[in-house]
């Protein structure tokens, strides 16, 4: 190849591949958007009649359920359905839940086809292992939608999904010019009482809340801090949606790999958050090493980019009364849509 060809090729690459190479918060941006459109056109869900009244313990669960019922995804024809929804209230006893599943098994042909693998349900805490055969089959085979975080024994990584915690929809979406006064912000309860927390309190670069704040104060602190610290497994991580939304890059301190992050099939979490590991056996994280990690992985040049990716990803964490394109409801539905292929059965099975 001649030099001219080469430089032409090079300039072609430079002009056309740079935008593609530029950072994205998405795992697969080239698949996500067309596949989402296919979902809107084709996805069908059959829901069994819910017991009345159906009561959920958290807002995301209720919003997911009410949005689902009024969505165009619902079909009355089970033969059209890709997935089946098993509705039951939070705090349903194991015994009643077992009876619900036994009822479906006996009254409809759908459960037996896959032993529940094309079924899904909502349970904020998640189902644990259980001696009730019906409940065990539901837990092991069906897709569970639980709240984040879900305890490890109550979450099966290859199939289960978590609901994004509730986020304030009022975050500004454009670039904010707010001066980031604090390096890190620790919301009350987000990091458990520890030597790390006392070191953070003593460090002028960090702002540690002494008590619960109201929403406005909280949002202001998010906007004025570069990083928001959370301790997975011990602290309250529910503020992570707001952190992402308001461009306070989450720093998640964890002693184990996290398998239940919300929107895990959609987002490239390592692009929008900093994960800091520590060994439980050792004496934990020190402020100085934490700062080193932050400067190394997300230093001055990179920070603004990561913050921008956070804010973009933040749109998908918003729950609406009336679902909007690409909001939390639709992204959970999208993750269900991705799971429709895990099911294999002969359509015309002879009874
Ligand atoms: C599903 O299978 C069980 C046995 O495992 C059987 O008792 C039940 O009648 C079957 N359900 C239907 C609708 O055929
Ligand atoms: C933010 O700063 C940029 C340049 O740094 C400026 O162009 C823009 O007008 C500012 N926006 C606001 C809302 O102040």
Structure description:
The protein is α/β, with parallel strands linked by helices and 351 residues long. It folds into two domains: 43-164 and 324-338, 3-Layer(aba) Sandwich (Rossmann fold); 182-317, Rossmann fold (3-Layer(aba) Sandwich). Helix content is 39%, strand content 12%. The protein contains 13 helices and ten strands. The chain has helices at residues 3-21, 29-42, 59-69, 94-107, 110-114, 133-141, 195-202, 215-223, 240-245, 269-272, 287-298, 300-314, 328-338, and strands at residues 45-47, 83-85, 119-122, 143-147, 161-163, 182-186, 206-208, 225-231, 249-254, 274-277. A five-stranded parallel sheet has the order 1-2-3-4-5, with helices on both faces. Strands 7-6-8-9-10 form a five-stranded parallel sheet, sandwiched between helices. Strand 9, helix 10 (269-272) and strand 10 form a beta-alpha-beta unit. Helix 4 packs across helix 6 (133-141). The longest helix is centred in the N-terminal third of the chain and has 19 residues, at 3-21. It starts with a helix and ends in a 13-residue tail after the last helix. Bound molecules: 2-acetamido-2-deoxy-beta-D-glucopyranose (2 copies). One 2-acetamido-2-deoxy-beta-D-glucopyranose is lined by residues 105-106, 109, 112.
Topology readout:
Elements: H1 3-21, H2 29-42, E1 45-47, H3 59-69, E2 83-85, H4 94-107, H5 110-114, E3 119-122, H6 133-141, E4 143-147, E5 161-163, E6 182-186, H7 195-202, E7 206-208, H8 215-223, E8 225-231, H9 240-245, E9 249-254, H10 269-272, E10 274-277, H11 287-298, H12 300-314, H13 328-338
Parallel strand pairs: 1-2, 2-3, 3-4, 4-5, 6-7, 6-8, 8-9, 9-10
Helix pairs in contact: 4-6
One 2-acetamido-2-deoxy-beta-D-glucopyranose is lined by residues 105-106, 109, 112.
